[in-house]
Amino acid sequence: MVHVAPTARGAAADAEQLQRALREGRLVRVRRGSYVAAGVWRDLDDGARHVALVRAVLAAASAPPVFSHGSAAAVLGLPTVGHRDDAVHVVRGPADGGRSHGDVVRHAVAGHVPVAEVDGIVVTNAARTVVDLARTAGLVPGVVAGDAAVRCGLTSLAELRVEVARAGGGRGVRAARRVVELVDPASESPGESVSRVRMAELGLPVPVLQHEVRDRQGLVGRVDFWWAEQGVVGEFDGRVKYGTGDPEVLWAEKLREDRLRATGLRVARWTWSDAWAGDPMAARLRAAGLR
């Protein structure tokens, strides 16, 4: 957990010392009145930095808000993709007043809002967060977050269906329904989730995920995508792949692929940019024989 220090606390309370620490690069300003040690900030990924921003907003709030959308996803540890959103999102009742201001976006919601608490931060629960992301950001971000949420046990497909039904016929609900149809906890990374969404959008056959391939020597490995009838294997290059630069890893991966091909399977590989664009990934799969 990252500690976000308000101005009025600790050794940096003195304005002169605070300014010196900022000039010397020992502190990073998260937002007005809240700071994090520079060494800690450098080690944080984008999600953890957003959580630090959420904590800064929480520290300055007169009443603890319920964080939502991408902010809830960051606190819950769910991956987000697509357009970078540095704003902190909160939900409020229609009669609560207040408008979006600066780096805080307020969403007026009616009815019950299911919540969860993580390290003292109250957020929309995982099912609501996935549906909110789907409704506002679209299919890909919704599926990426949904796959991870179900895989990690933060929610279930049944809970996602309930939350979509609760949304009624509002804006973005059609995308949220499609997200729930596509969510599959067998997807083990955002790249695999993005790949599956593009496959669905481009009308490619639905693959089996995480299939174990065996030969006479035993287990060859678990492949990301498998189409049995067409003898095609699909591999998203994002885990232990050719770009690692580690000679032992490269050699082991080459041997694994040689064994896959020796079984008669045709292997297609693609990168994040291929999956995101969609067509380059599809071209690689079709070149391998997928129809």
From TrEMBL:
Q: Which domain of life is it from?
A: Bacteria
The protein, known as? CTP synthase
- Source organism of the structure: Cellulomonas avistercoris
